Amino acid sequence: MNILIIDAQGGGIGKQLVASVRKNLPDADITAVGTNTVATTAMLKAGADRGATGENAVVVNCRRADVIIGPIGIVIADALLGEITPLMAAAVAQSPAKRLFIPVNHCDNIVVGVEDLNLGRLVKGVIEELQKMTHF
Q: Which of 44, 70, 89, 106 would staple 51 via disulfide (CB 3.0–4.6 Å)?
């Protein structure tokens, strides 16, 4: 199973996601794509198998992924302080992959009805969903 983790800005969410997936599903094949090199580097240091940066990397890897994980802004054009281009958001939205979004209420995008949990609990929720999908 190819797990694609996408993050922007400093890569903090992606870093925690990669580390947690690696710890809980050690055989997972993790591709990390950052909207910038800082985000990509953070995810690679956390244990991703491979990494790439930028718009085209998001587009290409969304076609190859079985599961896409990231903050909810990766599916909203111009989100994450403008780092998510319309093409990136469309690639995530149109991918045949399953998508697991972290409901981060930032950048004027508020997810109503979602409990305001800390990032650690949200990452744990992602792992629980991944474990339901996989046979690791």
A: 44
Which uninterrupted H or E stretch holds 29? strand 29-34
Q: What's the confidence (pLDDT) of residue 135?
A: 59
Through-space distance between the first and last CA atoms of the chain, rounded to whole angstroms: 10
64 CB-near residues (< 8 Å, 6+ apart): 2, 4, 31
**51-63: per-residue pLDDT in tens?**
999 999 999 999 9
User: Would you say the pTM of this structure is higher than 0.70?
Assistant: yes
**Structural tokens at position 110:** 């508020």
* 15-52 per-position pLDDT tens digit: 999 999 999 999 999 999 999 999 999 999 999 999 99
121: tokens are 């609990």
Q: What is the identity of the amino acid at 44?
A: L
Q: Is the dihedral of CA 104, 106, 108, 114 positive or negative?
A: positive
